[in-house]
Design a protein that fits this description.
alpha/beta, FAD/NAD(P)-binding domain, 3 domains, 5-stranded parallel β-sheet, globular, binds flavin-adenine dinucleotide
C-alpha cells in the first residue's frame, strides 16, 4: 500500500468535485481529486445537449463544454488528479482522516488528509426500485445508461421506445432517441404533472409530437428475450383503472424515475443521512455528521441545474478552507421543512452569516411566497413567480433583514411555501 498526504481529498471529479477542489486551492490548501472514470467531468460528459451554464457563464453550453472549462483549470493547477481510481473507504485516524483508493497502476493508496469532500453524484432508480411486473427481457435500460450508450459508446439501444417518467433525463432521451432514428411512442408519468423542467417538456416532447401520459403507469412488461411491448394503465384517484389498460408495442423501455444520491461510501464512513434528501445531513458549513467530512452536489441532494451544483460546491470548498484554519460557527440553528416544502438544504442555519438555502416544493403554484420564520416569528418572505416539485428553489438570505438576537441555540427556522 502506498501512503500519500494532502490537505483535502475530494471524492468524485464531476462538476461538484472540480469546483470544490478549485475553491480549496484558491485558499492556499492542497487537494486531490479521486475519480473512478477515465476522465474528469462526471455526468456532464454524456450530456451533449445544450442548456448548461446560463448562470455560471451567461451562455448556453453543452455538458462537455461546461466541464471543459473546469477540468482545464484543474489540470493546469497543482491539484493531484487520480482518474480510473475508486475510493473504497474513508476512516478517521489519530491525526485526521484517511481515504483509501485503488487503481490498476498503483494498487491501494492511503491518503492522509485533514478534510474530505464527498462529491460522488447520484445514481438512477432501476427496474428493481420500481418493481414493475412482467417478464425480464433485454431492452430495459435506465435513461442515463441509454444516454451514455448513444452519446459516448455510439450504440443505439433500440428502435421503438417507451419512456417511464417525465424527469429531465427521460425527456432529453426521448428527443435523443428520435434524433438517433428511433420512434418514441410516449412518456408515461405516474404524477398529474410533469417531473422535468418546463423547457424540456416543450423542446423534447411537444416539438417532436411525443405523447405524455400523465397519471398513467406501466403495469406490465411483455417479451421473452427482448421487450415486445408494455401495458399502460391510467390512474383514477390514484387507483389503476385496469379496464382502460392499453398495449404499446415497443422493443425498448427507458426508465427515468428519479435519482438517488450515491451514499454507500458516506454511510460506511458513519455519515448520517437525511431521510428527506437521501444525502448527508449537513450543517450550515456543509459539514456532515462526521467531523471534517463535507458534501456537495448531487451526492448531497439531487440538483436539476449544474450551475447550482457549482455554486454550492464552490461555497463548500470555501467552508472547508475555513475549517482548516480552525474556524467553527458560534451558533447554528435547525432548519425545518414547513408547509408545502419537501426538503430544505442545508439542515442548519448560521444567523451571523446568512447564506443560501435550496428547497423543493411539494406543490405546483403560480405567484407563491417562500415564508421563513424563526420559532413562529416571521423573518423573510421571498416571492416566487412559479413553483413546482421538479424545479429546485434557491434562496439567498441577506444579513440585512436578519436580527441575530432573535435566535437561541434551541431555535428552529421553518421554511414554508404559501
Ligand atoms: C441526463 C442529465 C441531463 C442534465 N441536463 C442538465 C441541463 O440541461 N442543464 C443543467 O444545468 N444541468 C443538467 N443536468 C444536471 C447536472 O449536469 C448535474 O446535476 C451535475 O453535473 C452533477 O454534478 P456532480 O458533480 O454532483 O455529480 P456527477 O457529475 O455525477 O459526478 C460524480 C462523480 O463521482 C464519481 N464517483 C462516484 N463514486 C466514486 C468513488 N467511490 N470513487 C471515485 N469516484 C467516484 C463518478 O464517477 C462521477 O464522475 C443534467 C443531469 C443529467 C443526469
Amino acid at each position: 500500500m502506498k501512503n500519500r498526504a494532502c490537505d483535502v481529498v475530494v471524492v468524485g471529479g464531476g462538476a461538484a468535485g472540480m469546483a470544490a477542489s478549485l475553491a480549496v486551492l484558491e485558499q492556499g490548501y492542497s487537494s486531490a481529486i479521486v475519480e473512478r472514470e477515465e476522465r474528469l467531468g462526471g455526468i456532464l460528459l454524456q450530456c451533449i445537449h445544450n442548456g448548461f451554464g446560463l448562470t455560471e457563464f451567461n451562455e448556453e453550453l453543452t455538458g462537455p463544454e461546461y466541464a471543459e472549462s473546469f477540468f482545464t483549470s484543474v489540470l493546469k493547477s497543482d491539484i493531484q488528479v487520480y482518474v480510473d481510481t475508486t475510493v473504497t473507504a474513508i476512516e478517521r485516524s489519530r491525526e485526521g482522516l484517511e481515504v483509501f483508493f485503488v487503481n490498476t497502476r498503483d494498487g491501494i493508496i492511503r491518503m492522509s488528509c485533514r478534510a474530505v469532500v464527498l462529491a460522488m453524484g447520484c445514481r438512477e432508480r432501476n427496474r428493481g426500485n420500481l418493481r414493475i411486473p412482467g417478464t425480464r427481457p433485454a431492452g430495459v435500460y435506465t435513461a442515463g445508461l441509454a444516454q451514455r450508450l448513444i452519446n459516448m459508446e455510439g450504440y443505439i439501444p433500440g428502435k421503438e421506445a417507451v419512456i417511464i417518467g417525465s424527469g429531465d433525463i427521460g425527456l432529453i432521451m426521448a428527443r435523443r432517441m428520435v434524433w438517433s432514428g428511433c420512434r418514441v411512442h410516449g412518456v408515461v408519468e405516474i404524477l398529474p404533472y410533469p417531473s422535468g423542467l418546463t423547457r424540456n417538456i416543450v423542446q423534447c416532447l411537444k416539438d417532436f409530437d411525443i405523447p405524455l401520459y400523465l397519471r398513467h403507469i406501466i403495469s406490465r412488461i411483455h417479451g421473452k428475450h427482448r421487450v415486445e411491448g408494455v401495458d399502460v394503465t391510467p390512474l383514477v384517484n390514484g387507483i389503476p383503472d385496469e379496464e382502460n389498460t392499453f398495449f404499446i408495442p415497443c422493443d425498448t423501455l427507458l426508465l427515468s424515475a428519479g435519482l438517488i444520491p450515491e451514499n454507500e461510501l458516506s454511510k460506511e464512513a458513519g455519515v448520517v443521512i437525511n431521510p428527506q434528501t437521501g444525502g448527508p445531513l449537513v450543517d450550515s458549513t456543509m459539514m456532515t455528521s462526521v467531523e471534517g467530512v463535507f458534501a456537495a452536489g448531487n451526492v448531497l441532494h439531487v440538483h436539476d441545474i449544474v450551475d447550482y451544483v457549482t455554486e454550492e460546491a464552490r461555497r463548500t470548498g470555501g467552508y472547508v478552507a475555513e475549517y482548516l484554519t480552525g474556524f467553527k460557527p458560534s451558533l447554528q440553528v435547525k432548519v425545518k421543512a414547513g408547509s408545502n416544502v419537501r426538503y430544505v438544504n442545508p439542515a442548519m442555519f448560521n444567523p451571523e452569516r446568512p447564506d443560501r438555502l435550496y428547497l423543493r416544493s411539494l406543490i405546483v403554484k403560480n405567484k407563491a411566497v417562500v415564508d421563513i420564520s424563526v420559532d413562529g416569528t416571521p423573518l423573510q418572505q421571498i416571492k416566487q413567480r412559479h413553483v413546482q416539485p421538479s424545479e429546485m428553489i434557491s434562496i439567498s438570505l441577506s444579513a440585512a433583514g436578519i436580527d441575530p438576537s432573535i435566535f437561541t441555540p434551541d431555535s428552529a427556522m421553518e421554511v414554508s411555501i404559501l
